[in-house]
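Reopening this ticket.

The earlier resolution said the output was attached, but the attachment link was broken on my side. Pasting everything inline this time so it's all in one place.
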Amino acid sequence: MSESTFYDNTPFEYGYTSKEYLVDNMNPLLKELMKENIDKVFCDIGCGCGRNLFYASKFAKRLVGIDISVNSLAFAESFVDNNKLELRKGNNLDIPLDNEIADLVISDGVCHHTGDTFRAFSECIRILKPSGKLYLAVYKKFRYYPL
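Inline output:
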């Protein structure tokens, strides 16, 4: 039996009132990156309930979502419902993917929740192709990271 996580007990379902609402409130830079990388491999690390996966499914050739919460992954599967989507349970400190497989890696508000932001960032870089793009969003209560 797998251990229940915080996000299994408290899935991040903020803003899931409609798919249109989620798309309207996505970061425009992320939306543009997805459009610019049409027909490529996207990996959303810490995908949660699928808020970025839904929009990404319109552009990606292959779409991989990784999350530590099985409940969030189950929600994402029903929310996105796309045959290009592959969901995997995994920790972003040890992403269960091969090196250099992604053209676009998305880590949207995730790395800083791990306890080892640098390692989580390094894992995102590991799976990124040399010519790939990384969308990384981090925040902190008191503004700046010491790195």
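Reporter confirms the inline version is readable. The longest strand covers residues 128-137. The chain is about 30% helix and 20% strand.
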